[in-house]
Each structure stands twice: as structure tokens, then as C-alpha cells.
Design a protein that fits this description.
The longest helix has 31 residues. It contains 37 helices and five strands. The protein is mostly helical. It has three domains: 198 residues; 302 residues, no CATH class; 75 residues, no CATH class. A hairpin with a 6-residue loop joins strand 3 and strand 4. The chain has a three-stranded antiparallel sheet with strand order 3-4-5. The chain has a two-stranded antiparallel ribbon with strand order 1-2. The relative contact order is 0.05.
């Protein structure tokens, strides 16, 4: 009977919902004593509202009638150091994220309750409130559309004067926690994708538009730090520079965010992002590539003073080395798609080459009778001329106009005398022909990324002159061969470039494996692109490189892993072939920083890893103890090498085990038996080595001759 009188409470009933609301209204102050009670009440409210939005319209009607969101605002105002903000924001985020009906979302964003919660004076210092606050902002932004966005902005005379959601979010744009940064970027993209005209005007007008310059300046700061890591000593970074260098991922993340912004179909937004990228990052990065002091372009004293002032302003007291600049610009072009960036970078690095090449074309006349100089410079000059400042006309012209602000674009500069030596040392060619391998490969990488870009202008592609590029551009623009430039600039130097690469491969003593690997990738890439065969001298260099590689492979037969060489070559050949054939868009230019790092630390001497390898090879040889002639010391290699990283890690954790450590000492009854055992081990090792050598013999003997035969056909 008593059980029948005791009725269970329906937690999701309208009656219980009203009871919870009344309980919350009774509270006049929130302190440490009643904090838990208030948190429970807020949780119950959110759970019931979420349930009612999907299953019971009467609950949400009650939610609006009792103005429950107003109660959330009131709780924030009456709390006294009770730390109620974090759970309140958490429950609000959950409620907003789970709202499905347009009616519920529209109501929640109206009445200015959300703005009141956003602009509340929170204390973020030293606490964990920031993640909850940012999560709440992101939840609100996820419900924005053309109908709801207007509820969160304040407008005066057809202009947005206040947008708390956006303004408050930007305060956390450069927060130290990656999760918060990611949430803010998702929020901004949600706002930009609504495509509201007044909001676009608001975000692209100072001082709010400073957000875009802050992003680019943040990237530049990270690039400066990266450059310091590449060129600093190991002692300057005790936690390890190799790990720090991997922080390039942060720069790439920033670039992908900028790419997301540029993909939004809004000209004003794209213009704002592009302007800041060009002015604050790309052009300062390209300054070392322009080689103004080494070009044949002459300046007056006033021009030099003006130019120096502009360049100093661009640098803003910082300097980034050429190899880091090449890495950043190359990675940017791989991530940020579009003709604006590609053509601006191409114009900048080809600028010096356009002038130096004029000596060879000044007398040239095209098939239609026009001067060849004009056929090149007229379209380029048209590209340089700025169009009106309207967002609709902001295209490549702004970018090239920005370039022309710092460099003259006038055909009369081509009349200055130039020679082949100057040509080789002008602009990016000065790095391609550099004795520094990291600079040479990094500059070639940038050139290949430009040449293989789908967005490269056909005129600039013609200046590079790669065969595949010309064919693609003719097909894209429906141009005849006579309308495409002859590619004098780089094709003219291609034999020297190939020769420089082969000299690296055939160097004696040889360069590091890392340098040889990437050099071979570039050599193959250029040969495939140009469909060019090597001349006799270059074939000799190639054969020299091949023989050196074979000799290194033969030396590996003296190592402790010689029996694994056939299986390793067989298993890894497909991976090596895949990597060698990857496109420039897929190849990570981080290798240039690795090369610069290793060149800086090794200083030409044997590396620590090489010395460690030699010590290990020496250690595995059987050795009779000098003091105890009946003892034979061995280092027993494990039967199955742990090439897998996870296996290697677990193996290292157990190196204290004597058996797995592999150090053995065998005792024999007399010295003769000990020596006989040693000879038996060496004999069996030699037999196995001979077997492996016979398997590798075709690889080591016939490849070089085949190359010569192929070249002769």
C-alpha cells in the first residue's frame, strides 16, 4: 500500500521542469555552499530542454515562457567566486549543440541572452575556464545561418558596429593550447561561410581586420624560430633540435587554415588574406631570391635609398635565411592553391632572369613580325598595372603590382650588358648553382613546384620552359607553339643543372646518403620532364656515381646484416620506386632543412651514427680473449631484426636481458678448440657472404653497361 502512495518522479515531465525552474529562481546568491545544488539544477534544466526539443513541444514552450536563458544570465551575475562559470558554459554548449529545430535555435539566439553570456566578465587567468568558454562560442557559431546571424550583431546605418561572438573569440586566436586555437578557427570559418555582406564588411575593416595580419605575422614568427633551429648549435637547444624541427607541422597547419579562408567564395575576404600573405610573409621571404645587389639592373642613389627603406620595413628587424625561405614558400605553394600566389612567386623569382635573358632576345622578331621583347614585356607589363581597388577586380594584377613597387619593370633595363656568368648568378639560379647542396635542392624544389602547378600563367611557364609545362599550357589555353615563350631562361641552363646534380652524386668523398637520395630524385625528375638524355661527360659522372654506390653495397657485405640484404632490396624496391616517382606537389620540402641541419652539425667529418655503426660491426666479430685463450667472445645477433619502429621500441625496453643483449662468452677445454671454433664461425660466415654476393652480382655488374647502351641507342 505504501509503495502505491510513493510515486516515482518523471524527470522529463513538464511538471518537474517547472519545479526545477522555481528552485533555481529561489536562489539569490551562488557561493561555495550551494554551488553543487546550482550545478545539479542547471544540468537538469539542460537535459529536460534537450529532451523536450525532440519529444515534447510543451517543454520548450515553457522554456520560452519562463525565459530560462535569462536565469542562466542571472546565475552568472549573482555568483561570487563560486567557479560556477565552467559547468554553466558546459551545459549551455551541450544544450545548443543538441538543438535540432529551427524554432528552438532562433529563440535561443534572440533576446540578446547569448550576447550577455558572451560578454560577461570572466576571470580566465590561472584557471581551466577558457576551454569551456571557447567550446560555448564554437557551439553557438555552429548554429549560424543567414537568418540567425543577424540576431548576434548590432547594426547602425546598415553597418555592423558590434559582433561580440567574433570579437571575443579573436582574443583566443593565438592561445597556447592547440585545442582552443582549432576551435577558434572553426568558429571563424562558420561565420565566414554564412556569407553575410555586412559581416564581411565588418571583418575586413580595421581594426577588426587586424586579425588577418596577426595570423600571417604569427606564421612569420614561427618561421624565424624555425630558422634559428636550423642554424643554431646543438647546445642552444638542450631538448633536441631534431624534435624542434618537426614543429614545422605548426606552420603547415597555419597555411591550411589560410587555404580554407581563400576557398571561401568572397572576394573581399580573399583580397584581405592575400594582401597580408604577400606583404608580410611571401615578399619578405622572396627577397633573398631576388638578388638585387647581384643583378644587372642599375639604380640611382635616390632609388637605392627608397628601396633600402622599403626592404628594411618589410624585414621589420628580422632575417630568415634563404634555405628556410625556400622551404616556407615551397610549402605554401603546395598548400595554398590558386593562380594569385603561384604567379606572384613565379614573377618574383623570374624577375632577374627576364632582364638577363633580354640580351638573347633583344633583336628577336616573332613570326607575326612583332619585336620579341614587346611580345614578352607587354603582357607582363599589363599584368603589373594595377586595376581599380574594387574587390571584383582583385586578381593577379595586385600581386604583380606589389612586386613592381619594389622592382622596376621597364624594357630599357634589358639593354644593360650581361654575360653567362651574371646569368648563372642572378636570382634563383645563384642558389641552383650554389656549392651548398641544401640551397641547390631547395631552389630546384621551388622551381619544380611552380613548373608543375596547374595555376601557373602560360607566359611564366614559357619562361621556365619545361617541355611538359609547355604542352599542358598550350592545351589549357589553346595556344599554338609560336604563342608560347621559348623557355630560354632555364632550359638554356639545364645541362649545367644536370651536371651540377651529377657532380654531387659522383663526389669523392661521397656526400651523405640523405643528400644523394634527394639529388637522385631531382635528377630523375628533370630528365623525365625534359625528355633529355645525358651527354658523354655526364654519363661518365653517372657511371662514377653508380660504381661508388656499388662499392658501398659491397662494403655492406662485411657488416653483420649482410644476409638480410637480398630480402631488404626485394621488399624495399617498390617503396623506393614509389618515392622516386612522386610528384613535386607530394614531396615534402622539409628535406632541405634536414640537409642544412646535418651540414651544420657534421662539418664534413664522420657522423656519430656512422661511428656507432662501425663499432657495432666490430663488436659482432668473434674474438678470442687475450688473457684467457680458452674463452671465445661473441655478440649473437637476433635472428629476426626489428625493423618495425614499435618492435624496436619494445626491444630497447628489454635490453637488460642478457640473452637478448646478445653478448656471449663460450668456454672451451683448451686453446686449440677455441681457435677451431672461431675458424668454423668465420668459415660459415664467409660461405653465407659468398652466397649473398652471388645473388647481388647481376645488380652490381650489369646496370652501368645497360645505361651506356641505352644512351647510345
Amino acid at each position: 500500500m505504501w509503495r502505491a502512495l510513493w510515486r516515482s518522479i518523471d524527470r522529463f515531465s513538464l511538471q518537474h521542469f517547472k519545479y526545477i525552474i522555481n528552485e533555481l529562481r529561489v536562489i539569490k546568491v551562488v557561493d561555495k555552499l550551494n554551488k553543487e545544488l546550482v550545478v545539479d539544477l542547471l544540468q537538469s534544466l539542460v537535459e529536460i530542454v534537450t529532451y523536450g526539443d525532440r519529444h515534447d513541444p510543451m517543454i520548450f514552450e515553457c522554456f520560452m515562457e519562463y525565459q530560462v536563458l535569462g536565469e542562466f544570465v542571472r546565475v552568472l551575475k549573482i555568483s561570487k567566486n563560486s567557479r560556477i562559470e565552467a559547468p554553466l558554459l558546459q551545459y549551455l554548449s551541450i544544450m545548443i549543440q543538441n538543438m535540432d529545430t529551427e524554432h528552438a535555435i532562433y529563440y535561443c539566439l534572440s533576446n540578446d541572452y547569448i550576447n550577455s553570456i558572451i560578454t560577461h566578465q570572466y576571470e580566465f587567468d590561472g584557471g581551466d575556464l577558457a576551454p569551456y568558454y571557447v567550446s560555448f562560442l564554437r557551439a553557438v557559431s555552429s548554429k549560424l545561418n543567414r537568418d540567425t546571424l543577424c540576431l548576434l550583431v548590432k547594426v547602425h546605418e546598415d553597418a555592423v558596429v558590434s559582433f561580440p561572438l567574433y570579437s571575443e573569440a579573436l582574443k583566443f586566436a593565438h592561445h597556447g593550447e592547440k585545442m582552443i586555437q582549432t576551435a577558434i578557427r572553426a568558429l571563424t570559418l562558420n561565420i565566414y561561410n554564412v556569407s553575410d555582406d555586412m559581416v564581411y564588411r565588418f571583418v575586413t575593416t580595421p581594426p577588426v581586420s587586424q586579425y588577418f595580419s596577426d595570423i600571417v605575422l604569427s606564421i612569420k614568427k614561427q618561421c624565424t624560430h624555425l630558422d634559428a633551429l636550423v642554424h643554431a648549435t646543438e647546445e642552444s637547444f638542450p631538448r633536441g633540435r631534431t624534435r624542434d624541427l618537426l614543429e614545422t607541422d605548426k606552420i603547415v597547419d597555419e597555411l591550411y587554415y589560410l587555404e580554407d579562408l581563400l576557398c571561401i567564395d568572397e572576394p573581399r575576404l580573399r583580397k584581405m588574406v592575400t594582401q597580408n600573405l604577400v606583404s608580410l610573409l611571401i615578399f619578405p621571404m622572396l627577397l633573398p631570391l631576388l638578388q638585387l645587389g647581384q643583378s644587372n639592373v642599375r639604380y640611382s642613389s635616390s632609388e637605392l635609398f627608397s628601396l633600402s627603406a622599403k626592404l628594411l620595413k618589410l624585414h621589420k628587424g628580422t632575417y630568415i635565411s634563404a634555405v628556410t625561405s625556400l622551404f616556407v614558400v615551397t610549402r605554401l605553394l603546395q598548400v595554398v592553391q590558386g593562380e594569385n600566389m603561384v604567379n606572384f612567386v613565379a614573377s618574383a623569382i623570374l624577375y632577374a632572369e627576364m632582364f638577363s635573358s633580354m640580351k638573347h632576345t633583344i633583336e628577336g622578331v616573332t613570326d607575326d613580325g612583332t619585336n620579341h621583347v614587346n611580345s614578352i614585356f607587354n603582357p607582363l607589363h599589363e599584368m603589373v598595372c594595377l586595376e581599380p581597388e574594387g574587390a571584383e577586380n582583385f586578381k593577379t594584377n595586385y600581386l604583380l603590382g606589389h612586386l613592381s613597387e619594389y622592382l622596376p619593370c621597364d624594357p630599357h633595363f634589358a639593354s644593360f650588358p650581361c654575360n653567362d656568368t651574371v646569368n648563372k648568378r642572378a636570382g634563383i639560379l645563384s642558389y641552383i648553382f650554389s656549392d651548398n647542396q641544401s640551397l641547390m635542392l631547395a631552389s630546384l624544389m621551388l622551381l619544380l613546384v611552380l613548373a608543375e602547378s596547374e595555376d601557373l600563367d602560360y607566359q611564366l611557364a614559357g619562361l621556365i620552359g619545361f617541355c611538359q609545362t609547355k604542352t599542358r599550357m598550350q592545351k589549357t589555353y589553346d595556344l599554338s607553339a609560336s604563342q608560347v615563350f621559348d623557355g630560354r631562361i632555364f632550359v638554356r641552363h639545364l645541362p649545367q643543372i644536370l651536371h651540377a646534380l651529377l657532380k654531387v652524386l659522383a663526389s669523392q668523398p661521397p656526400f651523405t646518403v640523405l643528400i644523394q637520395w634527394h639529388t637522385a630524385w631531382f635528377l630523375r625528375k628533370l630528365l623525365v620532364i625534359q625528355e633529355k638524355k645525358l651527354d658523354n661527360h655526364d654519363v661518365h659522372l653517372f657511371n662514377t656515381s653508380y660504381e661508388q654506390s656499388c662499392e658501398c653495397l659491397r662494403k655492406e657485405l662485411d657488416g653483420c646484416w649482410f644476409d638480410y640484404m637480398p630480402d631488404t632490396l626485394r621488399n624495399e624496391w617498390a617503396n623506393c620506386k614509389r618515392v622516386l616517382e612522386e610528384s613535386s606537389q607530394s614531396k615534402d620540402p622539409f628535406f632541405a632543412l634536414e640537409l642544412a641541419y646535418h651540414q651544420h652539425t657534421s662539418c664534413g667529418g664522420p657522423t656519430a651514427s656512422a661511428l656507432a655503426w662501425q663499432r657495432m660491426v666490430d663488436a659482432v666479430k668473434p674474438n678470442v680473449d687475450e688473457k684467457h685463450p680458452t674463452w671465445l667472445h661473441l655478440r649473437i645477433r637476433e635472428f629476426d631484426p626489428k625493423f618495425d619502429e614499435s618492435k624496436t621500441r619494445s626491444h630497447h625496453l628489454n635490453t637488460s636481458n642478457h640473452e637478448e643483449n646478445g653478448r656471449w662468452t663460450l668456454g672451451f677445454p683448451d686453446a686449440d678448440a677455441c681457435v677451431a671454433a672461431q675458424l668454423l664461425i668465420l668459415e660459415e660466415t664467409n660461405k653465407q657472404r659468398s652466397s649473398v654476393e652471388s645473388l647481388l652480382a647481376p645488380l652490381l655488374q650489369t646496370r652501368s653497361q645497360n645505361l651506356i647502351d641505352d644512351q647510345g641507342e
